[in-house]
Design a protein that fits this description.
DNA polymerase, domain 1, 2 domains, 10-stranded mixed sheet, two-stranded parallel sheet, globular, binds S-adenosyl-L-homocysteine
């Protein structure tokens, strides 16, 4: 019999589960808090649970922790990249960034990705599988456990398309913000999407106070399509309408991510068109100087070009930041560490 994934169960479900196996509901509360507040990595760590019950739990449930196989620390800014191994042997990566306002963890939502964005390393091998809720939570739990520092912000911007793993992402947000767990504020959670329109509408209806970030990368349909295959399925008009709807329904300002690619989408014309596109929408733009990956020959825009682009947007009254390149010295862009690890593993096997 396959063991049930206890760490993916919500608070009420754990209480119900304990009832079903003949235990008192308060045991459910204790176990949930061990897993999600005290961040226990095994049943054996649950010191106020009897040996008998522990043995009983081990037969039907699993609560294994992710195993860190590699940790890289940036000498420039202390950013840390973690490579974790899952129970089936797959590996994923997560990043810890230190900001003035607290510690932020960037998590992966899938093993690989099927969206095919041209400049992204995560998508090169395609999608292997969705991550379980427990595997998304545990990236944060293990980092907090290892560093002993509280994680206050979470961004779902690592490998994978979160809205392609929709049900698990929704459950993940509920559990991450649960008062019996880490109790992270919804306002401190950002979910980034390449623009899966029907799921953006669904997310707006969940009644969350999280931030939705849309990967835009092009200011017209043609340019966006050239960088992001998903844009062929969900056109720019539709995506912008879904963003307006998200703001109208939730009152939360949209973040647009715009990766600047040298000579592709970084001209003053592009900036002007971008201003027109988002005019009247309460939003924020995050400019990301593209992080070149060896499999593609995209290059970064020159510093001067990036600043001119930013200035142009600011002149239109738009809130803009240039993403600080955290951990540049430890394999910048999302998916690069995992990719280089897998390339090496393949090389060794050959
Ligand atoms: N699937 C989600 C989250 C993935 S990555 C999404 O598409 O939004 C988070 C952001 O990093 C996205 O905006 C993505 O397009 C961008 N990105 C990925 N690889 C990059 C690279 N090499 N350089 C710059 N930005 C990159």
């Amino acid at each position: 019999m396959e063991k049930k994934d206890l760490k993916s169960m919500m608070y009420e479900e754990v209480l119900e589960e304990m009832k079903e196996i003949g235990e008192k509901p308060f045991r459910g509360k204790q176990i949930y808090e061990w897993l999600h507040e005290k961040l226990a990595a095994s049943f054996d760590e649950m010191s106020n649970i009897s040996k008998n019950l522990k043995e009983k739990l081990k037969i039907s449930y699993q609560c294994e922790a992710l195993i860190p196989v590699k940790v890289l620390t940036s000498e420039m800014d202390g950013t840390q990249k973690y490579l974790f191994q899952l129970t089936d042997g797959n590996v994923i990566e997560s990043v810890l960034m230190h900001y003035k306002h607290g510690n932020s963890v960037c998590i992966s939502s899938q093993v690989g990705c099927r969206m095919g964005c041209r400049f992204c390393a995560s998508t090169i091998g395609g999608l292997t599988r969705n991550l379980q809720v427990s595997e998304m939570l545990d990236q944060i739990y293990q980092i907090q456990r290892m560093t002993g520092e509280r994680v206050s912000n979470v961004v779902v911007m690592g490998t994978g398309e979160p809205l392609d793993n929709y049900d698990n992402i929704v459950r993940f947000i509920h559990m991450l913000t649960d008062e019996h767990g880490l109790h992270i504020s919804q306002r401190n959670i950002t979910v980034s999407t390449c623009g899966i329109v029907p799921k953006m509408y669904e997310l707006a209806k969940e009644n969350f106070q999280i931030t939705l970030a849309l990967s835009l990368h092009g200011s017209n349909q043609e340019k966006r399509e050239a960088l992001m295959p998903i844009a062929k399925k969900y056109g720019l008009e539709e995506v912008m309408e879904a963003c307006r709807n998200y703001f109208k329904t939730t009152g939360r300002r949209i973040t647009f991510e715009y990766s600047l690619v040298g000579g592709v989408n970084d001209t003053q014309e592009d900036a002007k068109e971008l201003c027109e596109l988002i005019k009247g929408l309460n939003c924020h733009i995050n400019l990301i100087p593209v992080n070149p990956i060896k499999e593609r020959n995209f290059r970064q825009s020159q510093k001067k070009v990036i600043l001119n682009f930013k200035n142009k947007l600011e002149k239109c009254g738009i809130n803009v930041t240039i993403r600080r390149e955290m951990g540049r010295d430890i394999g910048g862009a999302c998916g690069q560490l995992r990719k280089s690890y897998m390339d090496r593993a393949e090389g060794e096997e050959a």
